[in-house]
Write a structure and sequence with these properties.
The chain has one domain. The chain is about 75% helix and about 5% strand. It has a two-stranded antiparallel sheet. Helix 1 packs antiparallel against helix 2, helix 2 runs antiparallel to helix 3 and helix 5 packs parallel to helix 8. It is globular and about 50 Å long.
């Protein structure tokens, strides 16, 4: 049991580090590893959801200090993710595990397609004209990009579309015990037109509140194991705080390549587990 706890802690440390760099919750990497260690899928989902609160807090606090996070946009988008997370967690308790694997692969595939297509086009102007609703909410921001050596200013657009779309991200988070950062980042960049670094930082901020909402359902179900959740939380927090310090120094293209590489791995593994599950 002690060895398993240490293994889980080290795995979570790596997952938190990688997740904070690319805007993915560490649960997308931790959950497959937990199932390999013999933890039932639904229990892995429940405990991962609990630890996402710690993971998000570790990196989100650093991003807020560095002014990468768009707090106003995050508060607006959280309204929708919280609703989705509660509904998603309830569904996860009712459906067979194999369907959760396939759902995981499907939503990651949609994120992969969207971000890959964005890599093939020229970087858009982040200071573009806003629509009336986004302007009314005053959704805009700026941050200092160390890799570029200058301040990046941007304005968020289509908030009336991006907000409701985040319900799907919340639904995925609740069903799979993950931050659904892949889907959040896709919405931030493809619909709201946020720069990659602001997108990743804001995604990490939103993940914590989404996880808090979904975890209430899993706590009530009795699936949460304190030792398991604690091991994941410690490792993921250390990893995410380390990753958050590295993010400002990495170029946008590197972030996207890393993002897509992780997605390919996760998609293949989830499809395999879905096919082989009873």
């Amino acid at each position: 049991m002690c060895l398993d706890a240490i293994t889980v802690m080290l795995t979570s440390m790596f997952a938190g580090f990688l997740g904070s760099l690319i805007g993915l919750g560490g649960g997308t990497i931790v959950i497959p590893i937990l199932t390999l260690l013999g933890v039932p899928l639904k229990q892995a989902i429940a405990n991962s959801m609990i630890t996402l609160i710690a993971t998000s807090s570790g990196s989100a606090s650093a991003y807020v200090r560095e002014r990468l996070t768009n707090v106003k946009a995050a508060m607006y988008l959280e309204i929708f993710t919280v609703i989705g997370a509660i509904v998603g967690a309830t569904i996860a308790l009712l459906v067979p595990s194999r369907y959760l694997y396939f759902f995981f692969a499907a939503f990651l595939s949609s994120s992969f397609y969207g971000i890959r297509r964005k890599m093939l086009v020229k970087t858009p102007n982040h200071d573009a004209a806003q629509d009336r609703f986004s302007k009314w909410l005053e959704l805009e921001g700026s941050y200092y990009d160390e890799s570029l050596g200058r301040v990046v200013n941007y304005k968020i657009v289509k908030a009336h579309v991006g907000g409701p779309a985040m319900i799907v991200a919340g639904l995925a988070a609740g069903m799979l015990g993950i931050g659904a950062g892949a889907f959040k980042v896709a919405i931030h960049e493809l619909i709201l037109k946020m720069p990659p670094k602001a997108s990743s930082a804001t995604s990490n901020f939103i993940i914590g509140m989404t996880a808090l909402a979904g975890s209430t359902v899993f706590i009530a179900s009795g699936l949460v194991n304190v030792v398991l959740a604690g091991s994941i939380a410690v490792g993921a927090t250390v990893g995410s705080m380390t990753g958050s310090r590295l993010l400002p120094k990495i170029g946008d293209k590197t972030i996207r390549i890393l993002f897509l590489s992780v997605l390919i791995y996760l998609i293949l593994q989830m499809v395999y587990k879905g096919v082989t599950s009873p």
